[in-house]
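User: Can you help me understand a structure? I only have the sequence.
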Amino acid sequence: MKRKVLMGIISIAFSSGFIFSAMAFGQDIKARIKARRPIILELKAAGIIGENSAGYLEFRGSKKKNEDVVKAENSDRKIVYKKIGEKTGTTAEVVGQRRALKIAELAKPGDWLQNASGKWYKKK
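Assistant: Let's start by predicting it. Here is the structure, written out as tokens:
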């Protein structure tokens, strides 16, 4: 029950923009994430990156196109997950794992995702 409540809070926080508007650090991170989105979507569509089970982007092969963008995105996600964890009484790791589940749910067909056991698959 506690797990479902936490997942619901995290999901609402991300989908409503709460974490970005309610937290002081939010506006800068929101702008950076929004600016990177087109590049990230392009990398996902090309199969260069996928979403891992910890809630971060990960390269799927040896091609490391736009590595700086991927590193910056993961860095901002880490900050966001930590802040959500502090607000909800959990860890950044748990927040990231819950976010990974939501990302997988919202992913487009053809996106690479990693399940909890570490296996990569393309969403159908």
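Now, to help you interpret it: The longest helix spans residues 67-88. Confidence is low (pLDDT under 50) at residues 15-23. Let me know which part you'd like to focus on.
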